[in-house]
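Sequence design from tokenized structure. All designs in this work follow the same two-part layout: the structure record, then the generated sequence. An example of the structure record is given first.
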């Protein structure tokens, strides 16, 4: 054991006593990739996009003090048997034991009474990761769960005919899976959706991995040093010094970007918090996000945004695929019955999802007079494909070099070229003046 000294920005900090091997791992510029691609990959085949998104939100989200509560939520939504619980469980189980809480079932009101501060005065959900396997629709859309997902609450309940105040302290990272439950539009704003790879190639890769385990008669455990290393990461506050200069580079074609931009900034903060052993601090103690954090956040926001920056459930993806398949054979609008023949969903549920997709611009909706019908019937067709693009950090660098970046984003050149935060703020202020 030895004391390690690290230089962080404008300050010299004497680290607590950290084993040299662990300090070297946390200081490695690729430590997050090592964590996901080498350690978690011991148990989970493929699914690196999902693993890194879950890992960024869970590992980094629990560390950031100045983020929106709803940015630390995820819903993993794939068909039954796709392996969503296996992926989540084995990604999250690498966390320190005292920060990871897993349940297979809860009641809709459990958060009101769980860890009551009257009996556990030192308890807080802050810094914890709560994973709920296969959430039911009743819990997912319940008022208590919705409020908890938005940042905790202060409840007044009646117990033995007396009104009792119960404070719920802190808010955990909340990750859950579902095959059947579908969040209502209000919940989708709180729970971005992550889907898994359900291709035949992925199935074959999983079978091969299972065969290797069977042939060797064992599975592989995580490196205990890697798990221990995550214990040394502390809760921090983060700034994104180039945030204002990104506004002209972010698509704004849908109102949900009002939510997604904040989430994107928080994902940047999550990455920075994970890399706190190699990030600068300013004179206020804030850690400063970098281009590496931008790229990790970009990958996560694209993974959770589906098409056009709007999260899509598995059922909605199936419906769009069905309409697309029908449209490829015949360019026209299709009735609910015609679409129903291509997807195994109840008529009532299908109609509700078709209306949601039409409201969000994925489908067009109209009334048509059909033969053998006395009145017009509702029909749907494929709308113009949504596009949601975010430049990579390398592309931003290239635009800076070619002077082709939007005028309001010019100040980002300072970050790309290594200018410190104060110079960037000065540049931005001069442009505004």
């Amino acid at each position: 054991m030895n004391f390690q000294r690290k230089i962080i920005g404008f300050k010299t900090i004497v680290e607590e006593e950290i084993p040299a091997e662990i300090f070297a791992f946390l200081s490695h510029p690729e430590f997050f990739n090592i964590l996901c691609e080498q350690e978690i990959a011991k148990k989970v085949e493929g699914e690196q996009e999902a693993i890194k998104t879950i890992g960024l939100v869970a590992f980094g989200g629990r560390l950031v003090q100045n983020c929106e509560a709803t940015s630390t939520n995820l819903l993993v939504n794939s068909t039954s048997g796709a392996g969503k619980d296996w992926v989540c469980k084995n990604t999250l189980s690498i966390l320190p034991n005292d920060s990871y809480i897993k349940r297979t079932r809860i009641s809709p009101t459990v958060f009101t009474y769980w860890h009551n501060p009257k009996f556990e005065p030192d308890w807080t959900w802050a810094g914890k990761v709560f994973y709920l396997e296969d959430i039911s629709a009743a819990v997912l859309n319940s008022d208590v769960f919705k409020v908890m997902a938005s940042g905790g609450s202060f409840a007044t309940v009646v117990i033995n005919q007396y009104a009792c105040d119960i404070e719920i302290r802190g808010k955990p990272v909340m990750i859950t899976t579902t095959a059947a439950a579908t969040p209502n539009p209000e919940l989708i704003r709180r729970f971005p959706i992550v889907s898994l790879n359900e291709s035949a190639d992925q199935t074959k890769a999983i079978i091969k991995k299972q065969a290797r385990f069977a042939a060797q008669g064992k599975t592989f455990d995580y490196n205990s040093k890697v798990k221990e290393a995550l214990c040394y990461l502390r809760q921090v506050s983060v700034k994104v010094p180039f945030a204002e200069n990104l506004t002209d580079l972010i698509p704004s074609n849908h109102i949900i970007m009002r939510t997604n931009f904040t989430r994107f900034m928080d994902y940047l903060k999550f990455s920075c918090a994970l890399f706190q052993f190699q990030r600068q601090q300013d004179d206020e103690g804030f850690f400063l996000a970098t281009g590496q954090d931008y790229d990790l956040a970009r990958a996560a926001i694209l993974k959770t945004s589906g098409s056009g920056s709007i999260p899509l459930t598995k059922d909605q993806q199936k419906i769009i695929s069905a309409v697309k398949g029908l449209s490829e054979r015949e360019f026209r609008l299709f009735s609910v019955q015609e679409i129903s023949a291509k997807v195994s969903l109840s008529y009532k549920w299908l109609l509700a999802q078709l209306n949601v997709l039409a409201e969000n611009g994925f489908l067009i909706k109209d009334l048509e007079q059909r033969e053998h019908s006395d009145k017009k019937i509702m029909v749907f067709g494929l709308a113009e494909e949504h596009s949601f693009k975010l430049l990579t950090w390398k592309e931003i660098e290239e635009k800076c070099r070619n002077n082709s970046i939007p005028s309001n984003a010019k100040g980002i050149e300072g970050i790309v070229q290594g200018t410190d935060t104060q110079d960037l703020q000065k540049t931005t202020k001069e442009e505004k003046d």
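Confidence is low (pLDDT under 50) at residues 1-14, 417-433. We note this feature because it recurs in several other targets discussed in the main text.
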